[in-house]
């Protein structure tokens, strides 16, 4: 476990030397992936294993993680790899020693555990199964790594993030700076679609995507992309495609799940950025966090991350008339999904 120490200041002051400094044991950056044997979890774990920002990679799932971790451990990158399952009750260890070992000392916990959609389902249809999975895993975080940054991928993100917050509150360890829903895939999609439309390299595009992570609660602000030009019909098409990009993949996979590879990439980008920020770099990226920008208690928008996690939620600025229409449509839906998550834990 690293950060919040004199060593952190030393690291940011000596930025070019970071690689050699942070590989020492006392400054290890530990990332835990919960749901690591799944469609997202495996490629996400692979990308984390390759990341120079990660020193310890911890893979946790209810199945398969010893194999995933053993496999990854043969890759010649500097990070160590741990694979853990929930263990049977073993006195005096208690029932959760697998999760405990997976989580202890973690700086970032990424959670892609839970069931994915099939064609015809909304993300909200996953609530009944995934709400309790997220609840249980975040209870583990509250007990075993209360200071870690928790990044929620499991859907419905608009409800699972509030669930996580309520669980952490119940345990008296909620820190809004250390909890975020991962909406990076929406930004990746918007960048790709604008790049393709304009004939630009998508890596040079950075679209701001606000709101939440489900259908019309996803609002890409294409009016802010310098030089991008759309007819009204094109703008409508690219907006709706971004909002329903997940459905496009679900339909193409035809019953075999939802986005996994692009999500693993997006989850890795988010995690690496958070690690860089915890080490002292200032990073701005969109994330779904507790926010007072709007009437919704949680809202995705550009957020400045630093060594304490979320350092500042940037002002939203003016929306175009077209974006304002979508914003007004989104708000009741987003607030309802947030409330559903809050009520699940409070009931
Ligand atoms: N935030 C986003 O942008 C996106 C979110 N997702 C969501 O991510 C989630 C995972 O998707 P996939 O990886 O495709 O599903 P998957 O079914 O391939 O993998 C899920 C993994 O979670 C594990 N799991 C289930 N219960 C668990 C528990 N209690 N503890 C630990 N692990 C547990 C399963 O064993 C499985 O290995 C879904 O809810 C999906 O909707 C998917 C794509 C994008
Ligand atoms: O669509 C889904 O169910 C998975 C997801 O969140 C996405 O791909 O954006």
Automatic annotation (TrEMBL):
Which residues make up the binding site for NAD(+)? 35-41, 61, 130, 153-155, 263
GO process annotations (BP): tricarboxylic acid cycle
Q: What is its EC number?
A: 1.1.1.37
| Record Gene3D superfamilies | Lactate dehydrogenase/glycoside hydrolase, family 4, C-terminal, NAD(P)-binding Rossmann-like Domain
Question: What Pfam families is this protein classified in?
Answer: Ldh_1_C, Ldh_1_N
**Active site (catalytic residues):** 213
Any idea where the Lactate/malate dehydrogenase C-terminal domain is?
183-344
The alphabetized UniProt keywords are: NAD, Oxidoreductase, Tricarboxylic acid cycle
Q: Which GO terms describe its molecular function?
A: L-malate dehydrogenase (NAD+) activity
**Record field: catalytic activity:** (S)-malate + NAD(+) = oxaloacetate + NADH + H(+)
Chain positions recorded as substrate binding sites: 117, 123, 155, 189
At the top of the EC hierarchy, this enzyme's class is oxidoreductase
Q: Does the keyword tRNA-binding apply?
A: no
Q: Which domain of life is it from?
A: Eukaryota
Domain spans labelled Lactate/malate dehydrogenase N-terminal: 30-181
Q: Which InterPro entries match?
A: L-lactate/malate_DH, Lactate/malate_DH_C, Lactate/malate_DH_N, Lactate_DH/Glyco_Ohase_4_C, Malate_DH_AS, Malate_DH_type1, NAD(P)-bd_dom_sf
PROSITE patterns associated with the record? MDH (PS00068)
Q: What is known about its subunit structure?
A: Homodimer.
State the similarity comment: Belongs to the LDH/MDH superfamily. MDH type 1 family.
Put simply, this protein is called Malate dehydrogenase
Q: Which organism is it from?
A: Cyclotella atomus
Taxonomically, what lineage is the organism? Answer: Eukaryota, Sar, Stramenopiles, Ochrophyta, Bacillariophyta
